Amino acid sequence: DGGITQSPKYLFRKEGQNVTLSCEQNLNHDAMYWYRQDPGQGLRLIYYSQIVNDFQKGDIAEGYSVSREKKESFPLTVTSAQKNPTAFYLCASSIGLAQSSYNEQFFGPGTRLTVL
Amino acid sequence: AQKVTQAQTEISVVEKEDVTLDCVYETRDTTYYLFWYKQPPSGELVFLIRRNSFDEQNEISGRYSWNFQKSTSSFNFTITASQVVDSAVYFCALISNGPGRRALTFGSGTRLQVQP
Questions:
Q1: CB proximity B11 to A under 8 Å
Q2: Subunit contact B43:A33, Cβ cutoff 8 A
Q3: pLDDT, average across residues B13-30
């Protein structure tokens, strides 16, 4: 089945630790995205990547890092520099802005990160 | 800059009532796309509809209908004869076709609770 997988579903981290959230897609999409969702709020863009080996900062990139070494994978690392990392993290992918003007995004099931 | 406003934070209705979720957007671009997504308690975002800025025809899909009005920059979503399964958070989103476009801009969401 084609889709986006995120792991783990729940993640607990101690303060000062870096953690990496996994995102994999088998939709053959060029573009991938990471969003953060806080309770009662909408999604805010952390990072996005339009093509392998390239990525751009979104609106709230501070304290996060990403890599895009493979088309199907876009892991997100939450570093100790992120002051308030407890949130729900959603990964998405799309065909890509070069190929599609409307950029419909497909979302994974999300990872809920809690800092203890 | 782009902005999406969903002024209704939470709506509660009784099953079989009709309900309208409001969405107002801002963009300077003449070509853009509007989306609605549903987020059930599981957390994954489910795509509902996409509409481009040149198509102001209203759309109906089963119990769902959408009213797009460029004159008021609104893209409202109506659920007819609501059901308990409609309980979720609904997000309106926008992407424009201008330079510098990156990813969807989301509203803050409207939580819909349908009581049996």
A1: no
A2: no
A3: 95
Give the N- to C-terminal CA distance of chain A in Å, as an integer.
35
Q: Which of B43, B50, B108 lies nearest to residue A88, judging by beta carbons?
A: B43
- Asked whether the predicted pLDDT for residue A2 surpasses 90, the reply is no
Structure tokens at A62: 């501070």
* Residues A14-59: tens digit of each pLDDT: 888 899 999 999 999 999 999 999 987 889 999 999 889 999 999 8
Which tokens go with A3?
A: 């889709």
Mean pLDDT, rounded, for A86-100: 83
φ/ψ region of B53 (left if φ > 0, alpha if ψ in -120 to 50, else beta) reads: alpha
Q: What is the DSSP string of B15-72?
A: TT--EEE--EEE-S-SSEEEEEEEE-TT---EEEEEEETT----EEETTEEEEEEGGG
